[in-house]
Design goal:
Layout lengths: L1 H18 L4 H27 L7 E12 L5 E14 L2 E14 L2 E16 L4 E12 L4 E17 L3 E16 L2 E3 L18 E3 L2 E19 L2 E12 L6 E12 L4 E12 L9 E12 L1
Antiparallel strand pairs: 1-2, 1-14, 2-3, 3-4, 4-5, 5-6, 6-7, 7-10, 8-9, 10-11, 11-12, 12-13, 13-14
């Protein structure tokens, strides 16, 4: 009986082994056919994607803030932070404007703006050539104006559903034009806007500082919720010739959407000058509550 069972077991094992034999030639042929079908499908997908019309609309983002008080204090504060961008093919152009103006009892307490124009040419979805032109004016900084321009590159390091991270780097020609410094009879600096009309007895003349510089910039966007977003921008611009001559800028903002076009937001800006003009503070901060329009 044992012999019969052993024989049956051996026969079953041989049959299973024969059924489990893999036809390698047929399997390799199936793999080659699947790869061919995949290549055809990928080529068709690329061809279809190439037919999608590119978004060449002018896209704008505008942040508006205004505060007015009256009574014991009479103040007016106005903030405008605007961007416009247009793309065509591998090309894109962008212009930004960031300005603040404030008065107290009809006397200026803030008057500054920055505008930048940039051009990008994309080599891939991650890398792009960039050219930048910037102009900044701040009546309370001691600079008549600041100008910078030069080529660079952009790198999109991260882009997911909820997170985006990009970096810019530029080599620049910079021009800082310093205002004249007016002094009273005691040798004290007469600060703009001089509401008391203090007479000028002597002054240090205005002058220009031209130098080669660089700028690096990082931008991080976090879509926390479907209607809540956090944005962080950091910029550092410095001189190649004098390492202590540098400028830093930070903007942190939190935005909540009301509709496809309208949002509300809070922003905090820090503008730092490591070598401020004579008689000026190095750090200038601005906190604003804004109505935001995206179109």
């Amino acid at each position: 009986m044992k012999k019969v069972v052993l024989s049956l077991s051996l026969a079953s094992a041989i049959a299973l082994a024969e059924d489990g034999v893999v036809d390698l030639e047929k399997l390799n042929a199936d793999i080659a056919a699947a790869k061919s079908e995949k290549s055809v499908a990928e080529a068709k997908l690329k061809a279809l994607q190439a037919q999608i019309p590119q978004d060449t609309r002018l896209i704008t983002h505008t942040e508006l803030g205004y505060i007015e008080t009256s009574g014991n204090t009479n103040t007016q504060t106005f903030n405008l932070d605007a961007q416009a961008k247009k793309s065509w093919g591998n090309h894109s152009g962008q212009i930004i404007f960031d300005g603040q103006y404030a008065t107290q009892n009809q006397i200026e307490t803030k008057n500054k703006f920055l505008t930048e124009l940039s051009y990008d040419y994309s080599f891939s979805k991650h890398f792009a050539f960039n050219y930048l032109v910037g102009y900044k004016k701040d009546r309370f900084s001691g600079f008549d104006y600041q100008f910078y321009t030069g080529p660079g590159a952009k790198y999109k390091a991260l882009k997911t559903t909820n997170h985006e991270l990009s970096f810019d780097g530029n080599i620049l020609y910079s021009l800082d034009s310093y205002e004249s410094v007016n002094l009273d009879a005691s040798g004290n600096i007469i600060a703009y806007p001089n509401p008391n009309n203090i007479p000028t007895v002597s002054s240090h003349p205005a002058y220009d500082d031209q130098y080669a510089s660089y700028r690096v910039k990082g931008v991080y966007n976090w879509q926390i919720l479907s209607n809540l977003k956090f944005d962080q921008e950091l910029t550092f611009r410095g001189s190649f010739e004098k390492s202590e001559n540098y400028f830093a800028y930070s903007k942190s903002s939190l935005t909540t959407k009301f509709s496809d076009i309208l949002s509300g937001g809070l922003s905090y800006k820090v503008d730092y000058i490591n070598l401020p003009a004579e008689g000026k503070e190095p750090t200038d901060t601005t906190f604003t509550a804004n109505l935001i329009i995206d179109y």
